[in-house]
């Protein structure tokens, strides 16, 4: 097996909008180095000062350097029939692939990551970065951040790792469909290989255990593989791959609970790489309180979340319309609903009568909102899942081996979820003709 161990220096940290300024390739046939190649490249743009500070490569050094097009044939000769190897291979691969694509050529060789190979061969180390590995392997990198020297260092890592890796494991790393070759460099392979192919919510974590991204999937393993196999060349995609350190998941048994849990978890953690639901949405809530004179009053409050509210709305206008309708239908003084601050000379109703009327009218109106349970598939054979909606608001879900538990049992074992502006639309889409989802209406008995 021939290995083309490669390193590049670039004008920036991502392939989209940046270029290669130096490339180094070491060809290794499994026993010895058979060829070395390196060259500076004209990136077509001014080299940033921080890149010069990092690599020592200046604009003057690049004068007269060939373009990528001028060395493309030579690179294809070097890479032909070889496994492409680099330290954090997806970074180097994304740049070279983009350069070939810019000149109308498709380049997508089998590839290996020397960082991942070192992790497999030498487990338990604190860091697998190039400099860290040099430290605990005793490798001398004479010119760090120069392409050929870094490529030689990666070649040493490959040579030391290969004898300690089983042939089957090596083939697995090379298999395109396995997803292993595309994994983020700092993610242990077993974290991916142990993922279930079942519905649920998954979490991609950083080195501090905080969620970078939360998503839902009907097949968790397949969906996460899609995250890592996409050819992301943007700064965001490259940063994402570097940050991922761990994967977690929670099985839901069905898509409905996966969607509801995903919505709740994103709003709880606000992961930096989730674009949907990123902004904390403020809703309008109707709250109840008692003033100093003993009157029970209703008021409108805008917030991201209010506990103990009577009802929530997407806008202030919708909340006020609900209050106006309540006042009109049950002849409630608008001043006590926060709707009018005028006509203060008129006498307020008697306290006890008003309070009783307000409680009864609110209860009557809220009872008109539907209460129901959605029965759906559970996580395992013989298990069912139940989503509880009371008076139009999501309350949570429960898994049970019973065909249909009573409401008290559901409430006792309930995994609570906060209602949001998305939950009604999610729920509606699953109770209108979705096969496998059964709506069971119910009404709470008055105490």
Q: What would you note in describing this structure?
A:
- It is a single chain.
- This protein is an alpha+beta fold.
- The chain folds into 4 domains: 2-182, Ribonuclease H-like superfamily/Ribonuclease H (Nucleotidyltransferase, domain 5, 2-Layer Sandwich); 200-269, GIY-YIG endonuclease (3-Layer(aba) Sandwich); 283-367, no CATH class; 372-441, no CATH class.
- Helix content is 36%, strand content 22%.
- The chain contains 16 helices and 16 strands.
- It has helices at residues 49-55, 59-62, 68-79, 89-102, 114-121, 130-137, 147-161, 167-174, 189-193, 220-229, 235-243, 255-269, 316-330, 351-367, 407-412, 423-431; strands spanning 2-10, 20-28, 33-40, 82-86, 111-113, 200-205, 211-217, 246-251, 283-290, 296-303, 311-313, 372-377, 384-390, 393-400, 415-416, 438-441.
- The strands form 4 sheets. Strands 3-2-1-4-5 form a 5-stranded mixed β-sheet. A 5-stranded antiparallel β-sheet has the order 15-14-13-12-16, covered by helices on one side. Strands 7-6-8 form a 3-stranded antiparallel β-sheet.
- A hairpin with a 4-residue loop joins strand 2 (20-28) and strand 3 (33-40).
- Helix 5 (114-121) packs parallel to helix 7.
- The longest helix has 17 residues, at 351-367.
- The protein is elongated, with a radius of gyration of 31 Å.
End-to-end Cα distance, whole Å, is: 77 Å
Q: Sheet with the most strands?
A: 5 strands, mixed
- Portion in beta strands: 15-25%
Query: How many β-strands, per DSSP?
Result: 16
Mean pLDDT: 88
Name of the CATH first level of the largest domain: Alpha Beta
Across the major sheet, the strand order is: 3-2-1-4-5
**Fourth CATH level, the homologous superfamily of the largest domain:** Ribonuclease H-like superfamily/Ribonuclease H
Tell me the overall shape.
elongated
CATH architecture of the largest domain: 2-Layer Sandwich
Radius of gyration: 31 Å
Number of helices: 16
């Amino acid at each position: 097996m021939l290995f083309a161990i490669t390193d590049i220096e670039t004008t920036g940290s991502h392939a989209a909008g940046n270029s290669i300024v130096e490339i180094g390739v070491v060809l290794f046939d499994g026993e010895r180095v058979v060829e070395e190649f390196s060259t500076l490249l004209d990136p077509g743009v001014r080299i940033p000062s921080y890149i010069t500070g990092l690599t020592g490569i200046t604009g003057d050094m690049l004068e007269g350097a060939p373009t990528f097009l001028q060395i493309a044939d030579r690179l294809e000769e070097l890479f032909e029939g070889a496994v492409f190897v680099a330290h954090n291979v997806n970074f180097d691969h994304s740049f070279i692939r983009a350069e070939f694509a810019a000149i109308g050529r498709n380049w997508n060789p089998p590839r290996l990551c020397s960082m991942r190979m070192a992790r497999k061969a030498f487990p338990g180390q604190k860091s697998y970065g190039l400099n860290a590995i040099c430290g605990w392997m005793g490798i001398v990198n004479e010119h760090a951040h120069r392409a050929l020297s870094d490529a030689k260092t990666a070649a040493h890592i490959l040579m030391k790792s290969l004898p300690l890796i089983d042939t089957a494991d090596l083939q697995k790393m090379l298999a395109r469909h396995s997803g292993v070759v595309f994994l983020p460099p700092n993610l242990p392979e077993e974290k991916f290989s142990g993922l279930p192919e079942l519905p649920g919510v998954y979490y991609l974590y950083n080195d501090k255990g905080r969620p970078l991204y939360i998503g839902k999937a009907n097949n968790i393993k397949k969906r996460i593989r899609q995250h890592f196999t996409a050819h992301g060349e943007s700064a965001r995609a490259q940063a994402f791959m570097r940050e991922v350190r761990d994967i977690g998941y929670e099985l839901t048994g069905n898509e409905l609970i996966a969607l509801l849990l995903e919505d709740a978890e994103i709003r709880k953690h606000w992961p930096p790489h989730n674009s949907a639901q990123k902004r904390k949405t403020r809703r309008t809530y109707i709250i109840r309180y008692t003033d100093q004179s003993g009157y029970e009053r209703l008021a409108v409050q805008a917030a991201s979340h209010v506990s103990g509210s009577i009802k929530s709305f997407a806008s202030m206008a919708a909340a006020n319309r609900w209050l106006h309708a309540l006042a009109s239908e049950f002849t409630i003084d608008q001043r006590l609903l926060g709707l009018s601050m005028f006509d203060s000379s008129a006498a307020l109703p008697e306290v006890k009568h008003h309070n009783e009327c307000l409680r009864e009218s609110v209860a009557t109106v809220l009872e008109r909102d539907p209460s129901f349970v959605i029965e759906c598939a559970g996580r395992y054979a013989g298990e069912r899942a139940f989503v509880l909606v009371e008076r139009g608001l999501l309350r949570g879900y429960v898994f049970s081996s019973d065909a249909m538990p009573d409401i008290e049992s559901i409430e006792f074992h309930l995994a609570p979820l906060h209602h949001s502006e998305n939950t009604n639309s999610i729920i509606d889409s699953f109770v209108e003709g979705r096969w496998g989802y059964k709506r069971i209406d119910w009404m709470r008995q008055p105490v």
